[in-house]
Automatic annotation (TrEMBL):
The keyword NADP does not apply. This is Orc1-like AAA ATPase domain-containing protein. Residues 422-432 have a biased composition (Basic and acidic residues). It comes from Camellia sinensis. It is found in: Nucleus. Residues 1-34, 350-370, 404-439 are annotated as: Disordered. One of its GO terms (cellular component) is nuclear origin of replication recognition complex. Residues 273-325 form the ORC5 lid domain. GO terms for biological process: DNA replication initiation. SUPFAM superfamilies: P-loop containing nucleoside triphosphate hydrolases (SSF52540). Residues 380-537 form the Origin recognition complex subunit 5 C-terminal domain.
Length: 540
């Protein structure tokens, strides 16, 4: 349950009918064929509550976060300040929140900005769940209320929340003689908005995010709680519009011990799988900290690991562990060279083509042939290549030219009319070039590096989308987004001495970096990505 962001248990009818499709739910299919009126119990999660011990055991390494969330939600019927839950992808944020509400047996409304990709769909998704409205053939798959403007949403939401709260208060006064009915705890209703960082993609006016943060102040309903879930930290959402800042709760990346507890769960032969993790866990954790990526990589490797065994239920000896490691070692190197993608797994033909390409490269080196200029002689993930190019541009280009280099036209216009230079200007230019050569590459802060990285990857994404038959290399753009953590890639580049990390600047107070690669190396990396580096490189 703690392995992925999406929950693994049965989801509610309300959520499936208003926001996302419900999968792997035969009971729900029967209800769709014979729809029943939705009740307040559809605002609960799961068929029945779970115990606290089951909740903790479902999320290894998340004890502190779960206890913090339960403490912040407070006792029954306690008003709650908005919460802001953030962390990297696949750190168990959404799953933990949903299971906490299942443990507490409290009603909530869940909407994801991944499926609710514009304000109208987001507003109507929340209202449909509060009004217990199911989209079906009878109503033409329409929403209970059509709502496009934030002002209309506030009025409709206020009315719907008061209606639900009054019904919850009435249910509290009823007797509990019917054992088949699952009674709801308390009269609080919580709004959970997931994938909040995606609002920027479809909110061109930049009004929805401040509106959502001020929703708690606008409604002034003490029985309503508000929870935001995001992949980015709260610092990226600060504005000067004024609102009650939500309480942040961070879900950090899993450690190697956490991964071991996660992957050891539900294993038939614990000793055999533990010996497998001793081999693969450490090298793979240097590349990614995502559970879904590691799970996708470990599944075929474990099958390969067990091939020499006639009986996988035996406990391996030390001699057998060494033999299994020798059998698996070539496949580990191939798997590490793959860029991890979660939703779009590579076909067998693509894997075979990549292996054939590696064989041809090895044959050329044995015959003394030269390597093509467009290929680098070492493995580097696509996001690391873009990050290396960004660091090279940040070191070579003046910071004052970033706005003109990375504008909407995609770089400086090299076709500008050239003026005839005087002898004095030529001398000054030559002197400046000599001084620049003596000084070497300049330093830059992390903020500038990330800004350039975002600009060049967005430009590359747009250009690749125009090509037919291309799978795309966009950074975090939908299902084909790269899964590499940028900060983790930066740390790897620093450890490999492609980027040097200096001390903190006394004026800015932030750490500064410097690119150590040559221009030939940067051009070779750019050619492997088909990225026009010379278009963005400032020539004095």
């Amino acid at each position: 349950m703690g392995k992925e962001e999406s929950p693994q248990v049965t989801r509610r009818t309300t959520r499936s009918s208003s926001s996302t499709p419900n999968l792997n739910n035969s009971i729900q299919t029967a209800k769709t064929n014979n729809p029943q009126p939705l009740t307040l119990n559809d605002l609960l999660f799961g068929d029945k509550p779970i115990s606290f011990s089951d909740l903790i055991s479902s999320f290894p390494g998340r004890d502190i976060q779960i206890l913090d969330l339960i403490r912040l939600l407070g006792p029954l019927n306690t008003p709650t300040i908005p919460l802001f839950i953030y962390g990297s992808t696949s750190t168990g944020k959404t799953s933990a929140v949903l299971q906490i509400f299942r443990h507490l047996n409290r009603p909530f409304v869940y909407s994801s900005c991944l499926t609710c990709y514009n304000p109208r769909i987001l507003f109507e998704s929340i209202l449909n769940q509060l009004l217990r409205h199911r989209k079906d053939v009878g109503n033409g798959y329409t929403s209970a209320k059509r709502c496009e403007r934030p002002s209309d949403f506030v009025n409709l939401l206020h009315e719907a929340l008061l209606n639900v709260v009054n019904n919850l208060k009435g249910q509290m006064g009823k007797s509990t003689s019917k054992k088949s009915v699952r009674l709801i705890n308390g009269k609080m209703v919580y709004l959970i908005i997931d994938n909040l960082e995606l609002v920027r993609n479809w909110d061109k006016s930049a009004n929805i995010l401040p509106f959502l943060f001020k929703l708690y102040d606008i409604l002034k309903i003490p029985e309503m709680g508000l929870i935001f879930i995001s992949k980015t930290s709260p610092d990226t959402y600060y504005s000067d519009t004024g609102y009650i800042e939500p309480i942040p709760v961070q879900f950090p990346d899993y450690t190697e011990d956490d991964f071991r507890q996660i992957f050891m769960r539900n294993q038939a032969n614990l000793k055999l799988y533990s010996s497998f993790l001793d081999v693969v866990l450490k090298p793979f954790c240097r590349i990614t900290r995502r559970v879904d990526e590691l799970s996708a990589a470990f599944s075929p490797l474990f099958k390969k690991y067990c091939e020499p065994l006639s009986d996988i239920s035996i406990s391996p000896s030390e001699e057998m562990k060494r033999r299994l490691f020798s059998h698996l070692q070539p496949d580990i190197a191939l798997s590490l060279n793959e860029i991890f993608r979660v939703s779009s797994s590579q076909s067998s033909s693509e894997v075979e083509a990549r292996k054939e390409k590696a064989k041809r490269k090895g044959t050329m080196q044995k015959l003394g042939g030269s390597q093509p200029l467009d290929e680098v002689d070492f493995h580097m993930s696509t996001s690391a290549k873009y990050l290396l190019i960004s660091a090279f541009l940040a070191s070579r280009n003046p910071a004052t030219l970033d706005a003109s280099m990375f504008d909407s036209t995609g770089g400086l216009d090299n076709r500008k009319r050239k003026r005839k230079s005087s002898e004095k200007s030529l001398e000054l230019k030559e002197t400046a070039e000599q001084e620049s050569l003596m000084k070497g590459p300049g330093t830059f802060p992390l903020e500038r590096l990330l800004a350039i990285f975002q600009c060049i990857t967005s430009v590359s994404e747009c250009s690749l989308d125009e090509e037919e038959g291309n799978n795309g290399l966009g950074v975090e753009s939908g299902d084909s987004g790269l899964m590499s953590d940028v900060l983790l890639q930066l740390s790897s580049l620093c450890n490999a001495n492609f980027i040097s990390k200096g001390s903190s600047c006394p004026l800015e107070g932030s750490t500064r970096y410097r690119s150590t690669v040559s221009e030939d190396m940067a051009l070779k990396v750019a050619r492997s990505l088909k990225f026009p580096l010379s278009k963005y490189l400032y020539r004095r």
